[in-house]
Specification:
The chain has 415 residues and is of the alpha+beta class. Helices cover 50% and strands 15% of the residues. A 7-stranded mixed β-sheet has the order 5-6-2-1-3-4-7. The longest helix has 34 residues, at 298-331. It starts with a helix and ends in a 10-residue tail after the last helix.
Length: 415
């Protein structure tokens, strides 16, 4: 990315804020972390092409984000964390995605995993943060791990895929199905130190190229019982760590909405950035064969207007949802099933809207923007990846919400 384009990122942040909802600046609380983030975004934007070449987040980006303390967003205050509210965190991830979505994807997960770890036993939390309060965890949570029961824990084995940001993490949260006393299986998470696995460099993808979403190779790693937790317990307030922080405003809630919050924020951030890129490109564009000024052409104006409205609607919808998270935390109100259903599906629908807005603009931005050195094509690719995660798959989410609205039992085949 050119220096001029990187510099434009700072201006773009102000443009996005004013464009999407001028009044929201008057009603939203101050976000000191976002101010700190804005200072490092130009350099992160300048590294976006490098991230794709490396197929992982550049070390410099991680250092910049850790220097402002963003990795401590959901770290318990007991370990020097910030315990940020979700709306402020999501605004940061949206801004980060506008600079480099690969970096946002990986780093958001490194942050949100701290919220998940805070649901584990105090002993596990001491293992992770007792001596290194900057420690983070990657994950591969699909339950593909295999295990052998052992005294005091399990031996864990598996090639655990889709571990974003694993090059920069000291731990990994890995999923597996464990037999219980009722003859059924519990979906569980095992927390494993980096010393117990190898990273397979196999992330060759067309989107989020710089996220470093590689495979963890684990061979009979011993996992003590205090580093294992049931997923259901973490969604129902019954995990070993639930209640450890009674004064906290973010830990009296299930882990999953925090784990997945970044996906929607990234979808929003890249869509907001696409509005600015389209405006910049189109403003100076003339048709090669006719010399016509594209910026004054009715189709371009209509596409920009509709995508602007659609992205603004997505932001308003997401902000309302994130504010509900805040309110539940402040009131220590544990969300019921219907609330959790809406939280998840709201975010997935907002992502769908953002992808549609990006597609509408990319279709008309011109063939020159298909070159790999153009920002628009990277935004187009990354935008679609934000809707490809299991949590943001709207075909799944629409079924989940439809069943809830009709009063049907949840379908266990729908995650």
């Amino acid at each position: 990315m050119s220096t001029a384009l990187a510099t434009s990122m700072a201006a773009a942040n102000d443009f996005h804020s004013d464009l999407t909802d001028p009044m929201r600046l008057d009603r939203k609380p101050a976000n000191p972390m976002l101010n700190k983030l804005n200072a490092v975004l130009p350099q992160i934007a300048a590294n976006a092409s490098l991230a794709e070449e490396l197929r992982k987040v550049p070390d410099e980006n991680i250092a910049l984000l850790k220097s402002i303390g963003l990795h401590k967003a959901f770290l318990p205050k007991a370990y020097g964390g910030l315990e940020m509210q979700l709306p402020e965190f999501a605004d940061c991830i949206a801004a980060l995605a506008g600079a480099c979505c690969s970096t946002a994807w990986a780093f958001s997960l490194l942050c949100t995993h701290n919220h998940q770890l805070a649901m584990f036993s105090k002993q596990l939390q001491d293992d992770v943060w007792g001596e290194d309060r900057d420690a983070t965890a990657a994950s591969s949570i699909a339950p593909f791990g295999r295990y052998e029961e052992a005294e005091g824990g399990v031996y864990f084995t598996g090639d655990m895929r889709w571990s974003s940001g694993c090059d920069h993490a000291e731990w990994a949260i890995c999923g597996f199905l464990r037999d219980n006393d009722q003859g059924a299986k519990d979906y569980c998470f095992a927390v494993i130190p980096a010393s117990d696995y190898d990273i397979i460099d196999d992330w060759h993808a067309m989107s989020m190229k710089g996220s470093g979403t590689k495979t963890l190779s684990i061979k009979r790693a011993f996992v003590p019982e205090h580093r294992i937790e049931k997923a259901k317990a973490m969604m129902t307030g019954q995990s070993k760590g639930f209640g450890l922080y009674p004064d906290s405003k973010i830990f009296s809630t299930p882990y999953r909405p925090y784990f997945a919050s970044g996906f929607a924020a990234m979808g929003l951030g890249v869509a907001e950035r696409m509005l600015e890129v389209f405006r910049q490109v189109t403003k100076g564009r003339v048709r090669a064969y006719t010399g016509a000024d594209v910026s004054a052409a009715t189709p371009a104006l209509m596409r920009l207007a509709e995508s602007t409205h659609q992205v603004a609607a997505a932001r308003a919808f997401l902000e309302q949802t994130w504010e509900q998270h805040r309110e539940h935390g402040e009131r220590k109100l544990y969300p019921d099933t219907r609330t959790l259903t809406y939280w998840r599906t709201n975010q997935a629908y907002a992502v769908k809207m953002c992808i549609q807005a990006v597609d509408r603009l990319f279709d008309a931005i011109g063939a020159n923007n298909w070159y790999l050195d153009k920002e628009a094509q990277r935004i187009f690719r990354d935008s679609h990846m934000t809707g490809a995660h299991a949590y943001t798959d709207y075909d799944v989410c629409a079924q989940i919400l439809g069943r809830e609205i009709m009063g049907l039992e949840p379908d266990p085949s729908l995650l």
